[in-house]
Write a structure and sequence with these properties.
Layout lengths: L5 H7 L8 H4 L7 H10 L5 H14 L2 H8 L2 H13 L5 H12 L7 H16 L6 H13 L5 H13 L6 H14 L4 H14 L5 H14 L4 H13 L6 H13 L5 H11 L2 H4 L3 H13 L6 H17 L7 H13 L5 H12 L6 H17 L7 H19 L2 H11 L14 E6 L2 E7 L4 E3 L11
Antiparallel strand pairs: 1-2, 2-3
Length: 462
């Protein structure tokens, strides 16, 4: 089977690229002040000009500029001006504005939330205009901004099911990712999407394959036949992928617990020189974590190369902070590898200097890191805000597993266990017990037995 080149599919049909725009476009220096000044002196520009201004701001804004830009009266007026024209805008403009909003590197402000709501209302009124490409882009754009209008979510579900045979793989991935961000799981929509993706696999582009694996990993959809075919196709076509795409494949298959030694070695061979292939700290930490998580034998040379290169890239950032998720991945990987170097403790200190996130995956990893480094006694205790975040993350995980059918089924099976040869020996199982700072799924204190379930929604393997 040969993967279809991206340019061939793109020539026939538009691709949804909201989620991958930052990865696939080269960074250009944008004059933020000039853009806001231009808008301020051309307040009568039409919706197309407003779209272009917002898109340019989203592409060019750095995280360090977010606070100043979002607090600028000109930016607020820009959003208000766009909002005033939304009711009269066509579906193309609604999609363009939603995509531009999704590119802004900040959590939603009241002005952004209000604009998203206006887009949602207008989209529902223009429902008949939205075909698969536009619907998928709009859904992902609004979901990226945290817009969760129940009527719009239902519209996306119904219209996707009604047009399912017209959706491309990339568009289906956008719909599934939007559902994930909304915190919605619709069995009918998910099953229909998986069936459609399976039917279309012979016509997948390189991007289709990468995005499908990413979405399956983020949703924990380890669907056997589709996953096996995607995994085999990726391995057979390694030369067609770019280094960032190979890292995405490595990371996704690792999350899906479907990464073999042969696949790892093929991807590492495809990457070649790590220092040429991986350009950001995030990519280095993703590779390191995937290798450690799968218990792949990492040579001392490769391990040292990854750590030294990560340290170099981190130092080169100067005033621009490394992403928190990357720092946590690197710290977890080093702890799991029993590498208690100065680099590890420096990274942990940098992590604790940042405010704790709400991302439960990051917090779950840091709980393990915190306990691991505490044994060495070289790092100060986690700040109060982080300890509170750890406790809240564990509480939410307990609530989630309390409702888990899988946990109840396993508990029933454990209760039914008997001793060998007629001995009446039963386990005294307690659920969600805290032991040494960790919350475990099942614990028998008398037998000193811990049972943990390794599920795909856990950010780290057992």
């Amino acid at each position: 089977m040969i993967l279809v080149p991206n340019q061939f599919r793109s020539a026939c049909r538009g691709m949804c690229a909201v989620a991958t725009a930052a990865e696939t476009t080269s960074h250009k220096v944008v004059d933020i002040e000039g853009l806001l000044g231009h808008f301020n002196s051309h307040v009568d520009m039409d919706i197309r000009g407003l779209e272009e201004t917002l898109q340019a701001l989203g592409r060019g804004m750095k995280k360090s500029q977010v606070h100043a830009v979002c607090g600028d009266d000109r930016f607020r007026r820009l959003l208000a001006t766009i909002g005033a024209q939304i009711p009269d805008s066509d579906h193309r403009s609604l999609v363009a504005v939603a995509a531009a909003l999704s590119a802004i590197p900040t959590s939603s402000t009241p002005e952004i939330i209000e604009l998203c709501q206006r887009i949602t209302v207008a989209a529902i009124k223009r429902r008949e205009e939205f075909k698969p490409t536009a619907l998928a882009s709009l859904a992902l754009g609004l979901a990226s901004r945290g817009s969760k209008d129940p009527s719009f979510i239902e519209m996306v579900k119904e219209d996707t099911l009604a047009q399912i045979d017209e959706f491309s793989p990339s568009e289906l991935c956008s719909i599934l990712e939007a559902q994930r961000r909304w915190g919605v799981h619709d069995r009918d929509l998910t099953e229909a999407a998986i069936e459609r993706l399976t039917d279309e696999i012979d016509r997948f582009t390189v991007t289709d394959l990468v995005r499908t694996l990413e979405v399956m990993a983020s949703l924990g959809l380890a669907r056997g036949m589709l996953l096996r075919r995607l995994s085999a196709l990726a391995h057979d076509q390694i030369p067609q992928f770019t280094p960032p795409q190979l890292v995405d494949i490595l990371k996704s298959l690792c999350q899906l617990r479907f990464l073999s030694t042969v696949q790892i070695e093929g991807i590492l061979e495809g990457l070649g020189d790590i220092r040429e292939a991986l350009k950001t700290p995030r990519r280095v930490s993703e590779v390191f974590m995937a290798l450690v998580s799968t218990e792949y034998y990492i040579s001392q040379e490769l391990r040292d190369n990854l750590m030294d290169y990560y340290s170099q890239l981190r130092d080169e950032r100067q005033n621009e902070r490394v992403q928190l998720g990357s720092l946590v991945d690197m710290a977890w990987s080093m702890c799991a590898s029993s590498i208690h170097s100065d680099l590890l403790y420096d990274i942990v200190q940098e992590i604790y200097e940042a405010p704790p996130p709400r991302n439960r995956d990051i917090l779950a990893k840091m709980i393990e890191v915190d306990k691991a480094v505490a044994v060495e006694g070289r790092v100060t205790e986690a700040p109060e805000a982080w300890r509170a975040a750890f406790g809240e993350a564990q509480r939410m995980e307990i609530e989630r597993t309390d409702k888990s059918r899988l946990h109840f089924e396993l508990l029933d099976a454990l209760d039914a266990l008997r001793g060998a040869r007629g001995l009446d020996i039963r386990l005294d199982i307690m659920r969600n017990r805290k032991i040494g700072g960790y919350v475990v799924d099942f614990f028998d204190e008398k037998a000193n037995l811990v049972i943990e379930i390794d599920t795909l929604n856990k950010p780290t393997p057992l």
